[in-house]
Amino acid sequence: MDPIVVTSTEAATGKTAVSLGIAQLAKAAGHSVGYMKPKGTRLQSATGKTRDEDPMLARELLDLDAEMHELEPIVYTPTFIEEAIRGREQPAELRERILENYEKQADERDLMVVEGTDRLSTGGIVDLTDSDIAEMIGAKVVLLSRYDEAGDVDEIISAAEQIGDDFAGVLFNAVPDSQLDQLTTDVAPFLENRGIDVLGVIPRVQELAGMTVGELADRLGAEVLTTDVSTDVFIERITVGAMSAEGALTQFRRTQNAAMITGGDRSEIVTAALQASGIKCIILGGGFRPTGAVLGEAEKRGVPVLLLQSDTRMAIDRAEDVLQSGPTRDPETVERMGQLLEDHADVDVLLEE
């Protein structure tokens, strides 16, 4: 079979769960399956080493005996990027490293599933975007996308043009019920008429979409400032309040199921966030407590407010790391995604020889 590269239009589209779900479906069908993530971007530090946890889960689920550096040849850290800018990372050498490890994993396997990064531009600094890698190994590219509004189609068309002949199609994931009719009735036919195959529309399943505010607070070690406000609501993404109140309100109204992060001293941003129905939680950094009036309004609207002692920049990084690491590293989640792919995606097209 042609190898498959799974990439996405943005972060937190369920790329790991989908990649491993496809791999497990192929394995269940009797095929020998390999996995690789050429550029590690979701990084954690463990035993003195910085690495991406996604290949660790793949190794467990697919019974792979490869070493971590073989599954993940490049650790795409900020330091790596700085070294590349200084000319200390050579694209030709990096390309050879990826190809050598890929061929080692692909040897005598029916299918290779290659997990890409959160954006098509990642890796461009060393000429190793997901599109570059797909071309190098002769893979077809599956583009993962969410769908919250019609404007999201622009990103898909742009991505398809960038990927070119290797583009297999777009797979919509975690689509809310409110958008299913428009997506299937209007958007999918529009894309098909533009030569973009729609490989499936996977509906939003709450337990796979993110985590509750309570779980987020526990993972962050945050103090919950609001009383008698439920923390059972699910959060799927993070948005940052770092602009004027007017600009913030426009941004917040386009966001769904989000936690908004800003400094505790930015009361005007918090007030704007409370006016947007898609903001389900507010996280304040810097240890600054908001005024009683702001907290009272949050409690009136049923929006939990969390407080972190770390500065706002660190709070953003921590919250994004926690949310993005969420349920996708759970084997049960990957199994559930496999079921969703069987029910709502054209898996035969992905696995055809």
UniProtKB/TrEMBL annotation:
SUPFAM superfamilies, A to Z: HprK N-terminal domain-like, P-loop containing nucleoside triphosphate hydrolases
Domain of life: Archaea
Gene label: pta
Descriptive protein name: BioD-like N-terminal domain of phosphotransacetylase
Residues covered by the DRTGG domain: 215-320
A Pfam family recorded for this sequence: AAA_26
Phylogenetic lineage: Archaea, Methanobacteriati, Methanobacteriota, Stenosarchaea group, Halobacteria
